[in-house]
């Protein structure tokens, strides 16, 4: 029923005939390939036991139908019609440069939006987008890899993505449990044994969002797709969905041309990380021997880092926790910005007397660390540490960050490290794209990083990769020991000495009531912009406040020894307010000035701000 390569690294299941029929035209042949793909029965998970049970919604018809590697399967029968989904509902699934939706039913007030049929249409839409981007590929079958994090809806959506890609005549390669950075890397790796490089890649993830959510990130060798690309894919998907809903092939046997491969690509990706650390240490086989490093994967996809990266490098990893994938996230939210998550990894470091702690988000594109004393390296402190490392390698380079970084970080980067701090907008894709733009106009930038833990380096193809960020820290540990500078994480702690940190740092979220009559039928975005303009005008009349001379997002103001930034959320009807100050009294003064400026906007919920001022 299947053949296995001699290396044991690739298992290929020919569920149906060849991967690609010549001259298939996507625009005319979106046929329904409801071939049943019982991944649970035929394709065991790669990279760990997943936290779900039960059978797939599409069961394999009968094993006796296998003939010479070909299966002819009936179109999926359905006793109910596929519900209508308007194009506007597809477009609502866009979340910046990602797609996000509700994939698990049962949470009150959160109707299912990312169904299997919607997912199939999105996958086929990506195929259409990809074909439009590729030139002269009419005789070449496109190859797309699929990976997922530990979410309970992952298997169901992986099957649906596979069907959608198959409908478009694409060769399907499943990686199983994987990280988002690995999915991008699969478009760059050149290794025929692992069917690389792929033409495109799809990661099924919703980062740190609740268990009932899921979504998609898309990659080509040029990097992650942008907002216009996601809109294009969703518009294509809406049209394809209509064809699915109107299909009358129920009960007809279709010879679907689908060649599903399961590839352990995470081993390839991890081996590259290992090689990077060894190289930095002078090609020593076990440069981390004797170092005690604990990892908290938060029951996401980051558990591989222990067995496939740290242990081959010689590190002691006892005390590592929550490595098993569990899409219900029973221990804490896998989020390096979450206080509970950071307390968990800090406790693990102290309890085990470890040299370093590492924590990842669900899909490993974000990370943070903790030193041996329990000091956290996240948000501004992680940016400071990474800036110190990068500026040692590239003196004078520009560090691009998001808009909510501190004034103390600017002073640290520019005065102590001799670099340039370019504070830009929120959104990891915005930060990365700005760094790429700066390089294109002659300003050298080697690091683009957000306070959220998204960090991308020029040397790593501008991919925001939480594991690679941690490798840069490991490189520093290993090279410091080789140079005789001692062991432990003190070398990292010393690198952020002199970073000024505020005594008070808060974020308050001011929501806009979209149904309030004060909006007068306008959009929340227009209303939010009016709030910001009013604040800007008020600041200009106050001698105690100074508006930032260069600012790319919202209104940023200094005063009372601190600063505040009021900006409009990228996607939601919310105005986040960040305040940092040397004391609670000074923070309250800043908050009071903001409150006085915006209190006349009755559709703006200022209760959080009022409470902070009154505390």
UniProtKB/TrEMBL annotation:
Spell out the Pfam families in the cross-references: PGM_PMM_I (PF02878), PGM_PMM_II (PF02879), PGM_PMM_III (PF02880)
- According to its UniProt record, the EC number is 5.4.2.2
- Residue span, Alpha-D-phosphohexomutase alpha/beta/alpha domain: 97-238, 286-374, 379-480
Which regions span the lipid bilayer? Answer: none
Print the keywords alphabetically: Carbohydrate metabolism, Glucose metabolism, Isomerase, Magnesium, Metal-binding, Phosphoprotein
Gene3D superfamilies xrefs? Alpha-D-Glucose-1,6-Bisphosphate, subunit A, domain 3, Alpha-D-phosphohexomutase, C-terminal domain
Write down the InterPro entries for this protein, in alphabetical order: A-D-PHexomutase_a/b/a-I, A-D-PHexomutase_a/b/a-I/II/III, A-D-PHexomutase_a/b/a-II, A-D-PHexomutase_a/b/a-III, A-D-PHexomutase_C_sf, Alpha-D-phosphohexomutase_SF, Phosphoglucosamine_mutase
Q: Which cofactor does it need?
A: Mg(2+)
Q: What class of enzyme is it?
A: isomerase
Catalytic activity from the UniProt record: alpha-D-glucose 1,6-bisphosphate + L-seryl-[protein] = O-phospho-L-seryl-[protein] + alpha-D-glucose 6-phosphate; O-phospho-L-seryl-[protein] + alpha-D-glucose 1-phosphate = alpha-D-glucose 1,6-bisphosphate + L-seryl-[protein]; alpha-D-glucose 1-phosphate = alpha-D-glucose 6-phosphate
Quaternary structure, per UniProt, is: Monomer.
The Swiss-Prot or TrEMBL record describes its family as follows: Belongs to the phosphohexose mutase family.
- Report what the protein is called: phosphoglucomutase (alpha-D-glucose-1,6-bisphosphate-dependent)
């Amino acid at each position: 029923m299947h053949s296995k390569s001699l290396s044991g690294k690739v298992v290929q299941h020919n569920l149906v005939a060849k991967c690609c029929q010549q001259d298939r035209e996507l625009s005319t042949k979106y046929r329904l390939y409801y071939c049943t793909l019982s991944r649970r029965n035929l394709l065991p998970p790669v990279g760990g036991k997943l936290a779900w049970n039960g059978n797939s919604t599409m069961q394999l018809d009968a094993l006796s139908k296998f003939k010479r590697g070909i299966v002819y399967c009936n179109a999926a029968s359905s006793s109910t019609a596929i519900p209508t989904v308007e194009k506007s509902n597809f477009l609502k699934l866009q979340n910046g440069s990602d797609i996000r939706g509700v994939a698990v039913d049962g949470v009150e007030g959160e109707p299912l939006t990312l169904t299997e049929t919607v997912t199939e249409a999105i996958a086929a839409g990506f195929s259409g987008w990809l074909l439009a981007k590729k030139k002269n590929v009419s005789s070449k079958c496109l190859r797309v890899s699929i990976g997922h994090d530990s979410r309970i809806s992952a298997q169901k959506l992986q099957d649906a993505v596979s069907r959608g890609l198959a409908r478009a005549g694409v060769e399907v390669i499943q990686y199983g449990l994987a990280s988002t950075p690995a999915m991008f890397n699969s478009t760059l790796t050149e290794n025929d044994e692992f069917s690389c490089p792929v033409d495109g890649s799809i990661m099924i993830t919703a980062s740190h969002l609740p268990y009932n959510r899921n979504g998609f990130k898309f990659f080509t060798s040029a990097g992650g797709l942008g907002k216009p690309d996601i809109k294009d894919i969703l518009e294509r998907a809406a049209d394809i969905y209509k064809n699915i809903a109107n299909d009358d092939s129920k009960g007809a046997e279709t010879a679907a041309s689908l060649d599903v491969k399961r590839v352990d690509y995470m081993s390839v990706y991890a081996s590259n990380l290992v090689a990077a650390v060894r190289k930095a240490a002078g090609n020593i086989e076990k440069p981390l021997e004797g170092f005690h490093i604990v990892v908290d994967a938060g029951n996401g996809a980051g558990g591989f880092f222990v067995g496939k990266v740290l242990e081959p490098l010689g590190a002691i990893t006892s005390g590592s926790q929550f490595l098993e994938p569990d899409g219900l996230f029973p221990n804490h939210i896998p989020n390096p910005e979450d206080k509970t998550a950071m307390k968990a990894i800090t406790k693990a470091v102290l309890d085990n007397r470890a040299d370093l702690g590492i924590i990842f988000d669900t899909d490993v594109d974000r990370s943070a660390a903790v030193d041996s004393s329990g000091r956290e390296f996240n948000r501004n402190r992680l940016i400071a540490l990474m800036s110190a490392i990068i500026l040692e390698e590239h003196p004078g380079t520009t560090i691009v960050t998001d808009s909510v970084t501190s004034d103390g970080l600017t002073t640290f980067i520019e005065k102590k490290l001799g670099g340039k701090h370019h504070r830009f907008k929120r959104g990891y894709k915005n930060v990365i794209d700005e760094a790429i733009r700066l390089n294109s106009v002659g300003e050298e930038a080697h690091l683009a990083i957000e306070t959220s833990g998204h960090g991308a380096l020029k040397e790593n193809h501008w991919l925001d990769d939480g594991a690679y960020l941690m490798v840069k820290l490991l490189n520093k540990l290993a090279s410091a020991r080789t140079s005789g500078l001692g062991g432990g994480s003190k070398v990292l702690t010393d690198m952020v000495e002199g970073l000024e940190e505020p005594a008070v740092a808060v974020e308050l979220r001011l929501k806009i009531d979209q149904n309030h009559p004060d909006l007068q039928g306008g959009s929340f975005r227009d209303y939010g912009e009016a709030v910001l303009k009013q604040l800007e005008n008020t600041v200009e009349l106050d001698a105690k406040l100074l508006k930032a001379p260069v600012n790319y997002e919202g209104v940023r103001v200094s005063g009372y020894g601190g600063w505040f930034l009021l900006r409009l959320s990228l996607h939601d009807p919310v105005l986040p307010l960040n305040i940092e100050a040397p004391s609670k009294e000074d923070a309250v003064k800043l908050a009071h000035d903001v409150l006085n400026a915006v209190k006349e906007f009755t559709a703006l919920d200022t209760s959080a701000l009022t409470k902070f001022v009154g505390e």
